[in-house]
UniProtKB/TrEMBL annotation:
It comes from the Bacteria. InterPro entries: COV1-like. It comes from Shewanella electrica. This is DUF502 domain-containing protein. The chain crosses the membrane at residues 12-29, 49-74. Keywords: Membrane, Transmembrane, Transmembrane helix.
Amino acid sequence: MKRTLIRGLLNVLPMALSLWLFWSLFASLDELGNLMLSLIGQHKWFTGAGFVLVVLLVFIAGLLFSVSPIAWLWSWIERQLMRFPLFKSVYGSIRDIASLMNRDPSKPKHQQTVLVKQANGGFVVGFIMTETAPQPLLDALPEGDWVPVLFQLSYQMAGITSLVKRTDLIFVDWSFEEAMRFNLTAGISTSADVSATK
């Protein structure tokens, strides 16, 4: 009885939460679009009209940013706003996350799963996110081939970036997505996949 309930929970809960998350996003964007329609004196046309309007406006913005004067103007506005420290921190973080979603699939991916040995003999799963560390850090470190390695914290998007010598890394033939899922759930996702197949 208990195992059946857990099996049902493990299969239904992720789907329910995912659908709820996407529905909440859809409803929020639809409400935003309807608010913009009301500002120009238009009433709600149909359910989803606001969402369609927001998607259309984002598409038009994408077209405009391909025009050099618009891109230059936006870049200038960004530079002016970046003078404010609080805005710089918040906007910079959001922009970096957005840029991760806009990776060019034709370009080689730098993310590599690695193992790093600890003082107690254990190993920690980490990720090489880029092949080169910033020059100020390289100038401050002893001579060697140093690589930035991200150690993801379980159950949160935060992590710790550590500089590790390349010779101290064990490269693992494991996809970034699967290894990230393993780290984020502390290995539970792998256990859930195995138990669901039994």
